[in-house]
Amino acid sequence: MKDAKIIHDGVHGSMKVAGPILELVKTPEFQRLRHIRQLGLAYLVYPGANHSRFEHSLGTWHLAKRLASEVGLSEDESLLLQVGALLHDIGHGPLSHTFEGIYRHYVKEHDHMRLGQDIITGKINITGDEDGGRIPEILEKHGIDPREVADLLLGKAEKPYLGQMLHGGVDVDQLDYLIRDAYYTGVAYGIIDLERLLKVLEIHNGELVVDEKGVEAVEGMLVARSLMYSRVYFHHTVKIAEGMLTRALEFALEEGHLWDFWKMTDCRVLVELEDLEGLSSELTRRVLYRKLYKAAVLASAEELGPDEKRELLSAYRNVKKRQELERALAEAVGASEGEVILEFSIADLMVSEPRLKETGIKVLLENGEVQPLSKVTPLANALKRRQTPRWAVLIASPEKYVDKLREGWKEVLFS
């Protein structure tokens, strides 16, 4: 193919990119993803975790193309799935999920899913580049409805199996990020039987199902996913760094700065925050040079009563409430504003990865019946009950306040 490009990927090997996929890869919006780290600030704990949303998006497209072939999609369906897979992260802001918790409070119209839809339908030119904003034009030129692609990003499609292939219990997005993140962090937890999984997925009565012979491969994927969230994505040091940088951005926004942060790349937002005066700059510099706060409290869900969980969930959904609790904790131990951060993993997971507790994968049995995975194997239910990550509440501060916080945090939060 004359206009094809060969891209060499560290995870999937050589991939041939051509046609509308190549045209989309060349757009400023897609090239922007080179400058957004897949795992945010995880490189502070795992030095190899410098891979980007760009390569993950290409990997997801590659797996979508392979899966489309395995299950026998028509040419039009295959192309729609491939485009959706390629563009599924096009709306991500700097450092991926790091700032996800404050989007709703400060820039309600620009969470990464809605932003992705707006980029695909041409409502926003996120880069400001003169060649930007052409994604809908490219799609329409190749007979693809931009609105259909935008809907697919949310797992919505006229044919359910297409949505499930991109955003379901076993989907190409998860398959790529589990393998890729394990590879670049150097941990073994994300290793899955990719080849087997691609072979045992099939379409039955309009839905994506797993052949009974592939149940073990799915179990392996669910275990890998759960362990990666405990060990990598919600590593307490990673969450402390992300919490510190989030507070730096919150202070900047409160002072009227960086309201277009959602358009920025990683380097840009870090430079802008460091250049500000006061708390924003101080916290950013601490993150950049890894002078991180220490974990004072790492409490499990079992240590919290139902009312306490509800109270924390309510606070975490309301940025102002969470900030008030952080100020109260700081005041109680003699710390300054910004020196105590509070994280609540249960709420964070609802925002960043609602699929984590998803075990509703359907299994096609040899006798032709379809059963949910939870009925076929007890492991699915066990994983659903498993607390991921191990901590539910994290409170961090400079080391000199750690002991006082450990002694009195519950009284401050729940009195």
Automatic annotation (TrEMBL):
<dbReference type="Pfam" id="PF19276">
    <property type="entry name" value="HD_assoc_2"/>
</dbReference>
<dbReference type="GO" id="GO:0016740">
    <property type="term" value="F:transferase activity"/>
</dbReference>
<dbReference type="InterPro" id="IPR003607">
    <property type="entry name" value="HD/PDEase_dom"/>
</dbReference>
<dbReference type="GO" id="GO:0006203">
    <property type="term" value="P:dGTP catabolic process"/>
</dbReference>
<protein>
    <submittedName>
        <fullName>Nucleotidyltransferase</fullName>
    </submittedName>
</protein>
<dbReference type="Pfam" id="PF01966">
    <property type="entry name" value="HD"/>
</dbReference>
<feature type="domain" description="HD">
    <location>
        <begin position="53"/>
        <end position="178"/>
    </location>
</feature>
<keyword id="KW-0808">Transferase</keyword>
<dbReference type="InterPro" id="IPR050135">
    <property type="entry name" value="dGTPase-like"/>
</dbReference>
<dbReference type="InterPro" id="IPR006674">
    <property type="entry name" value="HD_domain"/>
</dbReference>
<dbReference type="InterPro" id="IPR045509">
    <property type="entry name" value="HD_assoc_2"/>
</dbReference>
<dbReference type="GO" id="GO:0008832">
    <property type="term" value="F:dGTPase activity"/>
</dbReference>
